[in-house]
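Internal ticket - ligand job 347, adenosine-5'-diphosphate:
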Amino acid sequence: MGLSRFFSLTSNDIAIDLGTVNTVVYARGRGIVLNEPSVVAIETLNGVSRVCAIGAEAKLMLGKTPDYIRTVRPMRDGVIADVDIAEKMIKHFIEKAHGGRSRLPRRPDIAICIPSGATMVERRAIQQAASNAGAGKVYLIEESMAAAIGAGLPVTEPIGAMVVDIGGGTTEVAVLSLRGLAYSNSVRVGGDRMDEAITSGIRRRHNLLIGESTAERIKVEIGSARPPADGHGRSMRVKGRNLLSGFPAEVVVSEADVAGFLSDLVGQVVQTVRSALEQTGPELAADLCDQGIVMTGGGSLLARIDEELAEATGLPVIVAENALTCVALGAGQALEDPVYRGVMAES
Ligand code: ADP
Ligand code: MG
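stdout (structure tokens):
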């Protein structure tokens, strides 16, 4: 048994992608061990609040809870919006990743991803939350860098590469070269805004009010970044509350409708990528011609968004195979493989 194998069996170090929508945890030597919604349900009885569910269990309650339970997403735009709740959530996920054990032989080292736009204060907050949640050493790693490593891009070689990560809250665009970010930009356009656009589109067109989960389901099932070739495309029955009668009702929504609702947001993503390319130096730009663009994050699974981006840029575009987990995967590899040590900041 090699030495690294030995360490992988004894250590309980983990890497965490603390997303706005999903938290993914990678455990050294074991790979992805947890992938759950970043949602916390809080119950308030007689003026006293307590956490009653975290993760998948809490998400099931979204929009269906009685008055005394509210669901909270403690991350906003990739940074902590609610410190106390975020800490509880991180602690819960760390324990769960270790099979529910809250007492570990030693405090695990934790690599945690941060969006490139995070301020020093926001970085400190994430680091502090991880420490309070039980971490030993905390390493911070840029999310785009982690995504690139997870997607298998040659980040330790002097070759430029572009990563476009569409998450729940933001789209992060980065050009990477030699273990660093040569360019990065972030816009507040992501899966959440797509869901909102679908909700308001259906309200305008059909006078139907739908819930958050329904909007997301429409996006995943018949959402598309481009209008369907045959004009109408697939369609889907959608239930909600009719705003005129006040009663439950059902309408049929088409793929073409949804593409229309999403077109502004898709345009903003494309525009962000174009301005990133315009600001990339000629040597890196030349690399991008060969390497193309790699898309990650749940939003990159929107049908035909890769086509749209390829057409707008003239570059090859691929969606990473493990789009939803590759940030955590890359952070985990950075933690495991000394070759990547230079990309992380130790605090
Ligand atoms: P974050 O990193 O912010 O937590 P993720 O990368 O996990 O976000 O992506 C979550 C977003 O991806 C959600 O808005 C979700 O609705 C969206 N998503 C997941 N699957 C698809 C799909 N097939 N088509 C479009 N959007 C999707
Ligand atoms: Mg993400």
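Auto-summary: Residues 19-22, 167-169, 191-192, 216, 219-220, 223, 297-299, 301-302, 324 surround adenosine-5'-diphosphate (ligand 1) (CB under 6 Å). The chain is about 35% helix and 30% strand.
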